[in-house]
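Example (one chain per record):
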Amino acid sequence: MSLPRPLLQLDQDAFYNRPMNFLDMLAGAERANQSMLCVGLDPEPTRFPGRLKGDANKIYDFCAAIVDATADLVSSFKPQIAYFAAHRAEGQLERLMEHMRRVAPQVPIILDAKRGDIGSTAEQYAREAFERYGADAVTLSPFMGWDSVAPYLKYEGKGAFLLCRTSNPGGDDLQNQRLASVEGQPLLYEHVARLAQGPWNLNGQLGLVVGATYPAEIERVRQIAPTVPLLIPGVGAQGGDAAATVKAGWRAKPDGSSAGPIIVNSSRAILYASSEGDYAQAARRVAQQTRDLLEAAKG
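Predicted structure:
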């Protein structure tokens, strides 16, 4: 496969001098790759192409090929830990994290774990994400409160994305309920957004997860939380509209850079763009099309 630059021959100084601050890395990757696209790494062996099909021992090989094909098109990568753990492939995930840091040292990695526990358990989950796997950010469930989030913020420069308004239909069961005990009776997801923009965001490390299938809610979250990064899944196979997502969530500074950065995730549409041996090239084509569509939507 012919790539536009030798990804495996990057200057090693770039790896060892990899910036530690998630927001700086995100801004740098967005600028360098002219991209708001995040490629989600959700490996399903039953959907692997050709000779890889059904072989869970090939999870690393499949994902590494996707990374190599798309690394100059993305602002981040997002491996979903459950897809690895279900196949006893945590070791392959560790290898993949090392591979991403080597071939794309300036692209941040968001570990999609959606952890939500308190005390010493939360501390162990934070250690898993940031020390074992070396992630730059992690996704969390905030519904056990501040003490379920605080242990992650002890890791200087690391990011944490709180579930806010998710794209699944069942999100209405809780996220769209009004809080009678809070001034103004906001919806629960609005309250989470206020906490992330304000009192919980002690060191500027927090972001929010808002689904692309709800552009009106993206715009509402952006009104409440004008500067925090938004991780927006649901573009592609889940049917989220890329242009509507950018219009609702992205905000520019006077110089054209992101005032309110967005990270638009696409997983299956890119990973499984082809069921043949050209899967990496096909993934690159779809990633480039998605990246360009998102950039065009900035206007």
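Caption: The chain has 13 helices and ten strands.
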